[in-house]
From TrEMBL:
SMART domains assigned to the protein according to its UniProt record, in alphabetical order: UDPG_MGDP_dh_C (SM00984)
Originating species: Brachionus plicatilis (Marine rotifer)
Protein name: UDP-glucose 6-dehydrogenase
EC number: 1.1.1.22
Catalytic class of the enzyme: oxidoreductase
GO molecular function: NAD binding; UDP-glucose 6-dehydrogenase activity
Reactions it catalyzes: UDP-alpha-D-glucose + 2 NAD(+) + H2O = UDP-alpha-D-glucuronate + 2 NADH + 3 H(+)
GO biological process entries: glycosaminoglycan biosynthetic process; UDP-glucuronate biosynthetic process
């Protein structure tokens, strides 16, 4: 029997849970939406004028709904009990220990959320996995819930992966390409799918809501991200050929994109993809293939990551070579540290590995990024895997949020790592004057006017191009 959904609880107030639930609250005034998190600090931030993530348009929507039908709280148990539908949007990092190290997803947080649900739920619930999880995770969640639940309580577990991209999350949520819901292929499963679908139908056309079994849904999410990442590695691999041959990657991408079978999106050559999803999901996929004894398939996807690392290394090698094979005590200015524009998120950003290579070469780095916070940047660069002593990092890496002159004064090279629009608007004539000569620009995002920069006097190098420097 379908009943109107009145109350939703979302466990995890992060990059996925926060924006998704804000839009649900905004579009469904008749539904009470509680977003819960263990971190008091994060919840406090959501309840303050400075919400904890920068996402264009999000703050306006949060302020419209907060206190009405959108609530951020640490009262996890109370909100679970009241909910008809519970979203699990906790983090699923790659395991840093034990079996599957560096490959398998760490389900610690998913498991703890499931255990809390089974402990406190006194009425039947629909549980929705929103975090990207391995294939068959819904089955594991079901088993965890089954073995602990209270009498007369039933759980239907659905997979409803989120496809939003950071920086465009609001538009992606308001106008999704599709909503994907996976569930059990039986009466109860279909009923649960219908219930969740009814929430989305408040603003998404029914034809865009596609349903399938749980495993297909889980695998679709991994496959979608893997194929997006693969496109970037494919273009980046072609960019290496362009630099060596004199072809121009922008012209090649454009020509390829006109083929409607290929399409023109996601063909931007870059210094390498970053973000919390692509690398993690490909690692999950590789781990899955290995467990299924599909060695060739695992190798195929692994190559996407190999090319991504190669792209960063290639970029840095070119920089070192242009700077006369030494960066020792040279000031280098990094334009951008976030993994893409319009976000302050730095997870897996290409800039991290690039800074690592620069620091190994003895460079002094000044980062210019409008949204990244100093503490976050230092945290990334002191990740044990990079093997950089934190004191050294703090001594050698500075952050400027907006002061372009300060960031570029005395610098040997500007290195574009993030495609922030504001970088296009700078007065490069003025910047040239205050830099060391020869002044270099390395455009890892193809956003600058290279001919104009060369005419100012810069030596310019760009991904996927051979430029006519004087
Ligand atoms: C991605 C997927 O797009 C989204 O559907 C999924 O839900 C989560 O993972 P996100 O990581 O937020 O989203 O951003 P995305 O726009 O996909 O960019 C990922 C990385 O690829 C960024 O570093 C971006 O700069 C890079 N990129 C993207 C390119 O280098 N070239 C391109 O053409 C596109
Ligand atoms: C291809 C290109 O499509 C065309 O643009 C180019 O000019 C020549 O090469 P063709 O080889 O004639 O054309 O046929 P195509 O339709 O591309 O199919 C190639 C192979 O891929 C076939 O064996 C086809 O069955 C297979 N295929 C195609 C798939 O297995 N799956 C698909 O989704 C599409
Ligand atoms: P994502 O990008 O997937 O949204 P984030 O790391 O931004 O990931 O957010 C996940 C959030 O989930 C974090 O704020 C974390 O504190 C929260 N979280 C993790 N485990 C639990 C749990 N068992 N109960 C409540 N919140 C949790």
């Amino acid at each position: 029997l379908s009943k109107p959904i009145k109350n939703i609880c979302c466990i995890g107030a992060g990059y996925v849970g926060g924006p998704t639930c804000s839009i649900i609250a905004y579009k469904c005034p008749h539904i009470q939406v509680n977003v819960v998190d263990l971190s008091q600090e994060r919840i406090n931030a959501w309840n303050s004028p400075n919400i904890p993530i920068y996402e264009p348009g999000l703050n306006e929507i949060v302020q419209k709904c907060i206190g009405k039908n959108l609530h951020f709280t640490t009262k996890v148990e109370e909100c679970i009990e009241k909910a008809d539908i519970i979203f699990i949007s906790v983090n699923t990092p790659t395991k840093t220990y034990g079996v599957g190290l560096g490959r398998a997803p760490d389900l610690t947080y998913v498991e703890s959320a499931a255990r809390t649900i089974s402990k406190v739920a006194k009425t039947s619930k629909i549980i929705v996995e929103k975090s990207t999880v391995p294939v068959k995770a819904a089955e594991s969640i079901t088993n965890m819930l089954k073995s602990n639940h209270q009498p007369n309580v039933e759980f239907q577990v659905l997979s409803n992966p989120e496809f939003l991209a950071e920086g465009t999350a609001i538009n992606d949520l308001l106008k999704p390409d599709r909503i994907l819901i996976g569930g059990d292929n039986n009466e109860k499963g279909k009923w649960a799918i219908g219930q969740l679908s009814s929430v989305y139908e408040n603003w998404v056309e029914k034809s865009l809501i596609i349903t399938t079994n749980t495993w297909s849904s889980e695998l679709s999410k991994l496959a979608a991200n893997a194929m997006l990442a693969q496109r970037i590695s494919s273009v980046n691999s072609i960019s290496a050929i362009c630099e060596a041959s004199g072809a121009d990657i922008e012209h090649v991408s454009r020509a390829i994109g006109f083929d409607t079978r290929i399409g023109n999106k996601f063909l931007q050559a870059s210094v390498g993809f970053g973000g919390s999803c692509f690398q993690k999901d490909i690692n999950n996929l590789i781990y899955l293939c290995e467990n299924l004894n599909l060695k060739e398939v695992a190798e195929y996807w692994h190559q996407v990551l190999v090319i991504n690392d190669y792209q960063k290394k290639r970029f840095v090698d070119k920089i070192v070579k242009c700077l006369f094979n030494t960066l020792n005590n040279k000031k280098i200015t990094l334009l951008g540290f976030a993994f893409k524009k319009n976000t302050g998120d730095t997870r897996e950003s290409a800039a991290i590995q690039i800074c690592k290579y620069f620091l190994d070469e003895g460079a002094l780095i000044t980062v210019l990024d409008p949204k990244v916070e100093y503490e976050q940047m230092i945290l990334e660069l002191s990740n044990p895997q990079l093997n950089l002593p934190i004191e050294m990092v703090k001594r050698k890496v500075q952050l400027c949020s907006t002061d372009v002159i300060e960031a570029c004064k005395g610098s040997h090279a500007l290195v574009v790592c993030t495609e922030w629009d504001i970088f296009k608007t700078y007065d490069y004539k003025g910047i040239y004057e205050i830099m060391q000569k020869p002044a270099h620009i390395f455009d890892g995002r193809l956003i600058l006017d290279h001919e104009q920069l060369i005419s100012i006097g810069f030596h310019v190098e760009a991904v996927g191009k051979k430029l006519n420097n004087q």
